[in-house]
Design brief:
heterotrimer, A mainly beta, B alpha/beta, C alpha/beta, A: mainly beta, four-stranded mixed beta sheet, four-stranded antiparallel beta sheet, 1 helix, 11 strands, elongated, C: alpha/beta, TIM Barrel, 11 helices, 37% helix, 10% strand
Chain lengths: 137, 369, 367
């Protein structure tokens, strides 16, 4: 297992995930209200590129004909079948126990700490001025 | 060996009904006038879905003798006494429901219901009945439910599988509210008022195909009730699909479950998979069982696909010709399935069956196989 | 562009026949070049004339991006399914599609109420399939689109196209004016049988004049989507009970996107009802299920996904391992990927080969 620096924090904006490749694997990085999350770019259902889906809220209802959008920006709809996934946990809304997108714990690290090493940065240099999103992979 | 049916509850059988003349005592002066002056009393009011002479409509040994008076006797002989049943729920299939004049439909439905109460329920304590409703008029149907609800022998409101619009539509909700309030089940029985073609491509040439199409109507109605949120709004409501064929259900649960996962935001009140809702709120009468003859292992697998012993309610579908001789329980059903189906599931579905002498008797005889 | 999620490895690839691919017109007037001036003028003035209440849209709006995979929209702004290069990248190459069956649903005249226009549209749609798809991409095969309510033209179109090996089947909508078993459609079956072309019936959004369920129109897309499954059951029952397979003993029918897990229960139901009512249909010499077993094939998408995958294996076993054919429905939202679709079913190599490839090769007589 190694620490991998995936992106600059400044590159991952709310509502606009960044998909990066680490160890040959695609990972989507998400900014939900200033917190960062990472999901495998693969839907556990039919294999679609999950992180290219829509970032949405969770529609809920208190009674037929009433609609509430809750937790805006916290869910991802698969670009194929539209199943909804909680960005923070990878769990699907329809079947949270059995249908789950792989998720990774993301840490925000200042460049000044990272340069002390060891780390792997796939495609870019790490500088002391920036903050970075880091996962253990 | 056939399991004993003693004390079982038959949840779908059809009483012989009187001609319109027999209903006249239960009609108002206005309707008596209309009916006699327009010769409506000479009309058969036979649903096209169940022509009397068609093989499906009556088993050869259950065909009414010519000139036989409508009454409880054939049901006693052919069903209740024959198998020692505890209770039986009558579903009167009367053509009044197909009329376009809703007032006339309502008057005739009321007359049928009153006739059933007087001539059948009063005469035979083991009988219960569904309320025949003028289903195309919600207000008149509601009035009929409220009128009969105090008579605890009526245990269910009766709808046909094919009507003017899918039943889950919000316009019908006052009926569901009333049923939940009064502890009445909502019963949907095979049959059509032919407001639409029986298939999405029009009218079949043959009755046999028309009958086959009924199962599609049950699928439609069940999904309508689920999608519209009827069970979220009326969580205690029990819906019983009668004479539906039964074995279409696993596919229904798989397909709707999958589609719901992707289309859920369209109906966000459906907060559980359809299969969960069905297991809680919906039941199915036994006959007919659409399964291959002589392959009990296939039916056993279908029951595994269903994954619940709570769903089926015992029924003979008397006098429809769904089985021969004594073979009302098809081979392939497990012991637990049979045991629960005969009494327990019905008592959990029709709350009113627990009341009164006959209900207590059924309860005390719960010791079936 | 990111690296594809799945990198196919040469030599280990599963070769598949995809029995349901939807090509789209790159522009709304893409068919004009295949139409006589008279019909171009008609189209640009009066438009197409279908039975649903809205022009250019269905009254049950779909759930995902107009019913499309979000990732299937070409960069050039054309609609999903219109760009052959993208179709190659996303489907033919990525999924190892050896042969793909085009199902040209839109504006082929199947639902057009003006029958002469319907005839012109179907002829144009067939020319377009050759020109835009089969000629540039030899992996693709076309279906002869016919306007089923215009029997005479439908037959002529089958006669005209049959010698072209790119056309492997005849495509009709199951949402007809009368049930498909009705005798008015029999000349089409006679022509299909004579030219040894299976008749493909793909679910359709446009009605032929009847509500999508026997108890009226549903409310939600979720319900309308399901109505395709009940509708397809009634289509199959109609073909059986009207005696189509008795009259056309070599006819093959392929039911596309209507599901298949309902088929065993429907066959049991038909057999049971036939047993009681057979005197009404003496033209049937055998139980309904036998006609189905002999004459009907099913495509897999959208695959049913029971909690216990082996339940679906029961279904396939009951229908017959030789009767089920894989399909993706590209570029539609409920796409099935061959790498995933049967992953939980624990199939043998032989069973997989049957579903992905061999059954289709047999039905369509592919080399």
């Amino acid at each position: 297992m190694s620490r991998r620096v995936l992106a600059k924090v400044s590159e991952v904006k709310p509502g606009a995930p960044k998909i990066v490749t680490a160890m040959g694997r695609q990972i989507g990085l998400f900014n939900v209200g200033g917190e960062y999350f990472a999901l495998a770019n693969r839907c556990p259902h039919m294999g679609a590129e999950l992180c290219k889906g829509w970032i949405v809220g969770l529609v809920q209802s208190d009674a037929p004909g009433e609609y509430r959008v809750t937790r805006p920006g916290e869910f991802l709809r698969c670009p194929w079948h539209g199943w909804e996934f909680d960005i923070k946990t990878g769990q699907s809304w329809c079947d949270p126990k059995s249908v789950k997108a792989r998720n990774f714990k993301v840490q925000v690290e200042p460049g000044s700490e990272l340069v002390k090493g060891p780390y792997v940065a796939e495609t870019f240099p790490v500088t002391v001025e920036e903050d970075y999103l880091v996962i253990d992979l | 060996m056939q399991a004993s049916l003693a004390g079982a509850i038959d949840c779908d059988l059809h009483p012989p009904l009187p001609g319109v003349t027999g209903l006249l005592p239960h009609l108002s002066a206005y309707w008596r006038d209309q009916i006699t002056n327009r010769y409506i009393d000479k009309l058969p009011f036979q649903l096209s879905s169940y022509p009397a002479t068609s093989p499906l409509s009556a088993r050869p040994d259950w065909r009414p003798a010519p000139g036989q008076k409508a009454g409880p006797e054939p049901i006693r002989t052919h069903v209740l006494d024959r198998w020692g049943l505890g209770l039986a729920i009558l579903n009167p299939l009367h053509g009044a429901v197909a009329l376009f004049n809703n007032d006339m439909a309502a008057a005739l439905c009321s007359a049928v219901n009153d006739w059933v109460a007087k001539e059948l329920l009063d005469a035979e304590p083991r009988l219960r009945a569904s309320i025949l409703l003028p289903v195309h008029d919600v207000e008149l149907s509601l009035r009929e439910i409220e009128r009969l609800a105090p008579d605890r022998r009526f245990v269910q409101a009766l709808f046909l599988a094919m009507g003017e619009a899918p039943l889950g539509r919000r316009v019908n909700w006052p009926l569901f509210a009333a049923c939940q309030k009064h502890g009445l089940a909502v019963g949907i029985h095979a049959g059509s008022t032919y407001r639409h073609a029986p298939t999405y491509a029009g009218w079949p040439s043959y009755r046999v195909e028309d009958y086959v199409a009924q199962s599609g109507a049950f699928e439609t109605q069940l999904l309508s009730l689920i999608a519209e949120g009827v069970f979220q709004t009326y969580p205690k409501l029990k819906v019983v699909l009668m004479e539906s064929g039964l074995t279409w259900l696993p596919h229904f649960l798989w397909r709707t479950g999958k589609t719901w996962r992707g289309t859920r935001p369209e109906v966000p009140w459906v907060d559980r998979a359809p299969a969960e809702i069905v297991r809680e709120n919906v039941r199915f009468t036994l006959q007919p069982v659409d399964a291959p003859r002589g392959e009990p292992e296939v039916l056993a697998r279908v029951m595994e696909h269903l994954g619940s012993d709570n769903l089926i309610l015992f029924s003979t579908d008397y006098p429809h010709w769904q089985f021969d001789g004594e073979e009302v329980l098809p081979a392939g059903l497990g012991r637990t399935t049979i045991k629960k189906m005969l009494v327990e599931n019905a008592l959990d579905t029709y709350l009113r069956l627990r009341e009164g002498a006959a209900g207590e008797r059924a309860l005390s005889e719960e010791t079936v196989p | 562009m990111n690296v594809p999620v799945r990198q196919p490895v040469a030599g280990q690839r599963l070769m598949v026949v995809d029995c349901d691919i939807h090509p789209a017109y790159a522009t709304p007037t893409a068919l004009y070049e295949f139409l006589p001036q008279r019909w171009r003028d008609h189209w640009s003035t009066f438009g197409t004339f279908f039975r649903p209440p809205l022009i250019g849209q269905l009254p049950f709006p779909r759930m995902m991006a107009g019913g499309m995979r979000i990732d299937s929209f070409p960069d050039n702004g054309s609609p999903p399914g219109a760009d052959l290069d993208l179709m190659r990248r996303q489907l033919l190459d990525a999924c190892g599609v050896e042969v793909g069956m085009l199902i040209a649903l839109s504006r082929g005249g199947m639902e057009e109420r003006n029958l002469d226009f319907a005839a012109a549209l179907s002829a144009a749609a067939n020319d377009w399939q050759l020109h835009a798809w089969c000629e540039p991409e030899p992996r693709l095969r076309a279906a002869i689109v016919v306007p089923q309510e215009h029997t005479e033209h439908a037959v002529a179109e089958i006669e005209r196209r049959s010698d072209n090996a790119s056309f492997v089947q005849v495509l009709m909508s199951p949402r007809t004016a009368d049930p498909l078993g009705n005798r008015r459609y029999w000349p089409i079956y006679a022509a299909a049988e004579a030219h040894n072309k299976p008749v493909a019936l793909h679910v359709a959004g446009f009605s032929g004049g009847h509500s999508s369920t026997p108890t009226g129109w549903p409310t939600y897309y979720l319900q309308e989507h399901y109505a395709q499954a009940t509708g397809m059951q009634s289509t199959l029952a109609s073909l059986v009970f009207e005696g189509v397979f008795e009259r056309f003993p070599k006819l093959k029918v392929v039911l596309i996107e209507g599901g298949f897990a309902w088929a065993p229960a429907l066959c049991w139901r038909m057999d049971k009802a036939w047993e009681r009512m057979r005197a009404e249909v003496p033209h049937l010499k055998r139980p309904p299920s036998e006609y189905v077993r002999e004459h009907v094939w099913f495509t897999t998408q959208p695959i049913d996904e029971p909690d216990q995958p082996e339940h679906l294996v029961d279904i396939i076993k009951w229908i017959g391992w030789d009767k089920i054919m894989f399909s993706t429905d590209y570029p539609h939202w409920d796409f099935d990927d061959p790498a995933q679709v049967f992953a939980k079913l624990k199939l043998t190599g032989k069973e997989k080969a049957a579903l992905f490839r061999e059954n289709a090769r047999a039905v369509y007589g592919l080399p």
